[in-house]
Design a protein that fits this description.
The chain has about 325 residues and is an alpha+beta fold. About 35% of the residues lie in helices and about 30% in strands. The chain has nine helices and 18 strands.
Amino acid sequence: MSKSIPGTEDLLCDETFLSWYFRTDVRSIRQWEQWIEDHPGSSHRIQQAVDFLSSLTLKEESFTREQVSRSERILLEKIRKAAAKGRIAPFSSPRRWGWIAAASIVILAVGVAGIYYTTQRRAEWHTAYGEVKDNSLPDGSEVMVNANSSVRYSSGWTDGTDREVWLSGEAFFHVRKTPLKSRFIVHTRDLDIIVTGTKFNVICRDEKANVLLKEGSVLLHTAGGEDLQMKPGDFVEYDRQRLAKRVVRMDSVTAWKEHSLFFNNTSLKEVAAIIKEQYGVTVRLEGDTIERKTVGGVMANDNLDVLLKALELTTECKIIRRDGEIRIIQN
């Protein structure tokens, strides 16, 4: 992807940008979101292109030849009006054909996206802070979703085609095999987890991404092209640079399914991060060495007040909860 800031017509000629806008390709979405983050000066051009594409949304549920022709006429008329009103940044004569090509690509993209969303509407689940929820997917696969997480998937799954799920947060999947052994793919910000039938846990939060395989076989694929085959019992972490296996206790990773937290010499700094992830509250650690203080044992995690009381007794720290903030104070 170019490091220079493209013009509006360049964006509309770029198939990966259109895939980002219409949310039809995971890799393009990742690439453009990272590029936009790295190039804050591009926001005006990006918004121009997004506004223009938004004005072209088609409303038909199906697309006949007559409807496509009519949409094409409407599109070209909108291009003329946009240019006349100065909504699109002016460009020199040699670039006219680039703009015409962009318009042609947009016509195709809008048509394809319309068909895509007509046939692939996505269901989405969210869990609130402190909430754990069980769900079933169209193929009978089961998903337990941890607090502060979301899962979405396309509808209309048929055997022989990929079953795709997008995860943000943490979830445990029990994937059913199909007669034709259709692939089941979990997309996260950093990883694609590819299976046919298995049980595994996935976390993708902030800078943390890992997978624990309980049964079956899993192939991990990173955006950078690295692949790793997992076997039962494997725990793999990804730090956005490389995949690495690590030895862990399986029950420590999946304790959340039983509404518990498993601590094994876990630092209070890490405990504070877990509380923030799962309950959406700010946690302040007060004391010179408190971040290095460790916690051990299994604690109930279905009530924040009960969890804080257990931490207070275990760590011998003073814990104060007030106005959406928790203070853990070293005695």
